[in-house]
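Collaborator request log, item 7. Partner lab (contact: R.S.) asked for a structural prediction of Rpn family recombination-promoting nuclease/putative transposase to inform their binding assays.
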Amino acid sequence: MVSSPHEAMHRIFQEYPELFSGVSEVLGVPFSRPASVTILPTDLTEARPLERRVDTLLRFDTEEDGSFLLAVEAQGKKDPAKLASWAYYLTYLHAKYRQPPVLLVVCQDRATAEWASCPVHIGPPQWVSLTLRPLVAGPHNMPVITNTAEARKDLALSTLAAITHADNPAVAAILKAVSGALRETPEELAHPLAELIAQGLARRPAAQLWRHLMAVDLSFYKSPLSEEIRDEGRARGRAEDILIVLEQRGIDVPDEARERITGCGDPELLRHWLARAVTAPSAEEIFADE
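Returned to partner:
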């Protein structure tokens, strides 16, 4: 599984397009709920020149407001070059599909979100030809959901909110609320949402907390990530068994050997070391045939 907040922040709209209705309501720019949604190609490359790709592109067809396009961009940091790209995306989409486009930018830090929120005026001061006005979802305006019942009301919105609040001091309570809601949700819906959160947290400190919650609260789910987490748990347990056996036999374990044992994530190798720990005359001897 690709571990990337960038992927999770926009791909969730592909998996749950109706999420945009909840997000737009939170942002104070409500759009009608779609009667249907079509996932469109994200390749905006022209015939000859520079390749351009929007992260996610959807067409919403509503009974009240007609049709419009939603381009979702996940933005991890300030990038002035992106402003011109976003303006290009919108004008190109309008020209190609003859539908009104909306740009939604999803961020995980407040500074980037505030930067992306600023309107960009294109044209001379005397006459602004175009104004870029992205909708922005980020930690500055996504709800902080720390109650399981509240998280259960809109699981997709709760998932996106958890991803955007990855660095929030209350992230432990946020993730606990979501895991509690997912625990009471059918596996076919809860599983992909749990995976998206893991993907969205990536290497942040909160990722380890979510891995623990998945291993405990969501232990009944079967997925590559959940199996990886459980393998890690088994590896840690086997490493502890090796150290206990050596300790009970009165064998000293130097720091280097201890770090090698506890740092190993290969269950089969640890099983082999455990078998040797029963008879090895020293801690170093369990590695003798390596």
